[in-house]
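just leaving the lab so this will be short. what follows is a protein written twice so to speak, once as letters and once as structure tokens for the fold. can you read through it and tell me how you think this chain folds. anything you notice is useful, everything is just below:
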Amino acid sequence: MNILLINHYAGSPRHGMEYRPYYLAREWVKLGHKVKILAGSYSHVRSNQPSYVSGDCALERIDNIDFYWYKTPAYFGNGLGRIMSMILFIWKVWKDAKKIAKSFKPDVVIASSTYPMDIWPAERISKFCCAQLVYEVHDLWPLSPIELGGMSRWHPFIIWVQCAEDYAYKVADRVVSLLPKTFDYMRSRGMRDDKWDYVPNGVCLDDWRSFAPLPDSTNSVLLSVKKRGLPIVVYAGSHGLANSLDTLLDASTLLQGKVELLLVGTGPERHRLMRRVSSENLTNVTMLPSIPKAAIPALLDQIDFAFLGLQPQPLFRFGISPNKLFDYMMAGKPIIQSINAGNDIVSEVGCGFTVMPNDSKAIVQAVDKLLKLTKYELLEMGNAGKSFVKNERSYEFLAKKMISILEK
């Protein structure tokens, strides 16, 4: 098949997040399919932008995947600049629809951006070449900016997004959700029952077969922490308000002498959290800057337990699919999860303990439970998570699942 995937924010190992389009596309290429990804030249989630884009569009070939970078302006935050970037991207793909259909002749067109407005150019391309049209839903827009951002349902932007979402459910041949509990909501917005499928995020097993070593500075600090002789609980990821790291620091005072806490990453709250560690003399907390994604397996290989937290949000009733969780599971580490969501993989798989969010005492109790387990029981718990990810959350498995959906 010729698969055309439209994702404004698509990334790659060269550029950083978002990785899902690249990982799926790479597996599809291995299966003998041709893949073209259309993306914007600027994305707020990428660490490196394709800076060589001139004119309207530039081609870059990465691992036999053709990335077409459409020139879009840089922006900051979630204001007018980001909306203008969306409009320009949608318009440029719309304008090129006939040319794309004629030159690539896609059998499948996937509209896969976080926002649903790319359904319009995706449908236009699919009509020119009679291709199957797939709407892949990462986040529920406009519900996300309404419930998380506090935007009014009657804001002109929200009305525009709602029109696009409802239209996508109507015209798409298949609707693929990254979240497991979206069926009823999507049906309420006009989706026909037989269109829905679930294909979550996952991990790339190749990243775990051969991985980069830790940076020397990180390794040096980690060795000094290990010399203290206590189990290490790690959090590796963004340091934002949503990640509930204040609750973890609250728990640290009750965990002194039991475990060491290691926070690795960057984000808007990192410096405030560092000041809190210093001012409150949290001697069992160590904070390190972010490390390359390729070195995450090396980091997780050196620790004992992993922490994942999220502030409570009504939107989580549709489920969550955090990449960090799958990394922790792939590393075979028992997990303390401080999240309330529509799904609970940690409890279902038996690879750790889930507690309610914003409850530091519950985190302490979960750590105490882990400390009471034997080495065999901890190994069994870690292996349960690793086995689940390898069998059901690898991108090899997910890519094949997507192909089976497309071939229905």
Summary: The chain has 17 helices and 14 strands. Residues 124 and 385 are 42 Å apart (CA to CA).
